[in-house]
Every structure is written in structure tokens, then in C-alpha cells.
Amino acid sequence: MDMNTLLVSREGHIATVTINRPDKLNALNKQVIAELGACMTQLDNDAEIRCVILTGAGDKAFVAGADISEFASFSVEEGKKLAAEGQQKLFDLVEQMSTPVIAAVNGFALGGGLELAVSCHLRVASENAKMGLPEVSLGVIPGYGGTQRLPRLIGKGRAMELIATAQMMNASRAEETGLVNYVVPQEGLLEKCQEIANRIVRNSPTAIGFAIEAVNDGFDSDKNGFHSEIELFGKAFGTSDFKEGTSAFLEKRKPSFKGE
Ligand code: COA
User: Fold this and answer.
1) 58: Cβ below 6 Å to ligand 1?
2) 60/23 Cα distance (integer angstroms)
3) What DSSP designation does 251 have?
4) Rg of the chain taking only CA atoms, in angstroms
């Protein structure tokens, strides 16, 4: 499944998706957003795939933001539509996937690039990575969830600083603030992500999907996360993965989950 702006590779239960516009530092234009949204939907519906690693082509950038050349002449209405459609087609979609997505932040993650990394379920950065929300330096604000997800992840004050200064954070500061889980040398970045992915894919994909839903519900002001947890905890008891996981433990063998 190769699309024009993406490269997709699969190994066992792990898919790696690379945004492939290195000459534009993998900036998110309309086509990338549409193709990445479609690709993520397809992978989320693919029972074989239990973890996705998302990265950018080249050694310079994860994603250097939304494509500025596309929106420079937009009106108020067009601006609103750009944010609404992008959030729905890609950023909310990634966050709500039941298959966990690891962002391998291999360089600049700016604006929409940082917002994309923050929509993923966890992040690993290379030492050269630089992260920021430069939107106010362009006279606009983050529009792909940056004013919402970033404060939840690193705290309001730190997010306000990144947003208002438009400055970039280096990788070690990103690790310190919890923006990324680990920082590794660039040549070891994908390997580190694969190591985490390998630990994830041993577990019940159904249970992981339920857990992601419960965690997300806790950050959704229309939902009660504790109630969701109770519901989904109960629902897990009706799955064949639960029967397999508990039987395997009692029989002292490794479980073989089917994701049902
Ligand atoms: N949108 C469109 N094109 C972009 C882009 C973006 N967000 N980010 C980079 N590019 C393009 C550049 O225009 C350039 O294209 P060109 O070779 O056709 O001129 C190419 O990618 C390489 O970028 P360049 O600026 O030459 O690299 P650099 O190493 O000098 O600087 C950055 C790297 C990331 C500091 C710089 O590209 C930058 O500031 N990008 C914009 C970041 C931003 O504000 N993003 C938020 C958008 S809301």
C-alpha cells in the first residue's frame, strides 16, 4: 500500500508509515492529510497490524508543519474549514485509533507536525529533534488541536510558553517535560520504536483498544472517564482475548491473542 506522499512497510504485526516529502520537510498539505488519514484508517481496520510507527522521510524533519504555501491566502471561512477538516480527517482520527501509534520524531516537529506527534499515543525523539508551535509568528494559532492536546500532555504553563514564544524545544527538554517518552541517537530511533512496538504487540489488541478509549474519554469533557473505564473493563470480560489471556496464565503458557 504505497501512496504518493507516503511509504508504508510492514513487518509482522508492526506497520511503519513514512511521510515522504523530504524536499518540503514533510510539510502537511491537503494530499498528505487525506492520504495519511486513509492509510491510518486502513491500518486500524487491519487485524494483522497491532502497532503503527509514524515518521518523516530524511534526517532533517518529522513534519515541519502545515504547508504554509497552501493557506497563505485563505479567508476566515477557509481557515475555519482547514482546521475543522484536518482535525476530523487526521488528528482526532489518529488519537482515536484502537491500534497504538508511536511517533518517531526524527527532526523538526513544528506546528501541525508537533500536533500530529501529540495526537499519536506516544513519542520517541532523536537527539536532533526540535519541537515547537511557531503559528503565532505567522499571525495564526495552532489549529490541529495544539492548544488542547499540548497543555494536557506537558501542562498549561509549559504549553503556553511554547505557543506564545513560538520558540523550539530541544529533545532533552522535550524528554524532561514529558513531551517525548525517550530520546535516542538518530540512527537508533526506529529500532527504539520497534522495541516498544514489539512489547505492545504481545498483548491483547482488543484490550489495548479499550484502554486507549478509556484514557481518551478521561480527557473528553463530554464523557466521564471513570464510567467509561467501568464499561470497558466489563466489556473486556466478554472477549475471546480475555479467555485466552487468563487461560494462558493459568496453564503457564504464552497467550496467543486473536484481537477479538
Ligand atoms: N510549509 C511549506 N513549505 C515548507 C514548510 C512548511 N511548513 N517548512 C519547510 N518548507 C519548505 C521550504 O519552503 C523549503 O522549500 P524550497 O526548498 O522549495 O524553498 C524546504 O521546505 C526546506 O526548508 P528550508 O526552510 O529551506 O530549511 P531550513 O533548514 O533552512 O529551515 C525550518 C528549516 C523548519 C526552520 C524552516 O523550514 C521553517 O521555519 N519552516 C516553517 C515552520 C513553520 O512555521 N511551521 C508551522 C506552520 S503553521
Assistant:
1) no
2) 10
3) T
4) 19
Q: Report d(CA 235, CA 231) in Å as an integer.
A: 6
Residue located via cell numbers 499540548: 150
The CA distance from 222 to 50, in Å, is 28
pLDDT digits (tens, 9 = 90+) for 203-241: 999 999 999 999 999 999 999 999 999 999 999 999 999
Q: Could you confirm whether 11 is annotated as catalytic?
A: no
Q: Is 123 exposed, middle or buried (0-12, 13-18, 19+ CB in 10 A)?
A: buried
- Check residue 13 and give left, alpha or beta (phi > 0: left; psi -120 to 50: alpha): alpha
The 61-63 sheet, strands edge to edge? 61-63, 108-110, 130-132, 169-170
Q: Are the C-beta atoms of residues 39 and 48 closer than 8 Å to each other? A: no
* Domain ranges, ordered by start, for the chain: 6-201, 205-250
C-alpha span between 209 and 101 (Å, rounded)? 11
Q: Which CATH class is domain 6-201?
A: alpha beta
Conformational region of residue 39, where left means phi above 0, alpha means psi within -120 to 50, and beta covers everything else: alpha
Q: Taking the complete model, does pTM exceed 0.85, yes or no?
A: yes
- State in Å: Cα 104 to ligand 1 middle: 19
Given the residues 35, 48, 78, 115, the one annotated as active site: 115
The residue-averaged pLDDT of 236-249 equals 97
76 Cβ partners below 8 Å, 6+ apart?
Answer: none
Q: Which long-range contacts (CB under 8 A, 24 or more apart) does 80-83 make?
A: 82/143, 83/143, 83/144
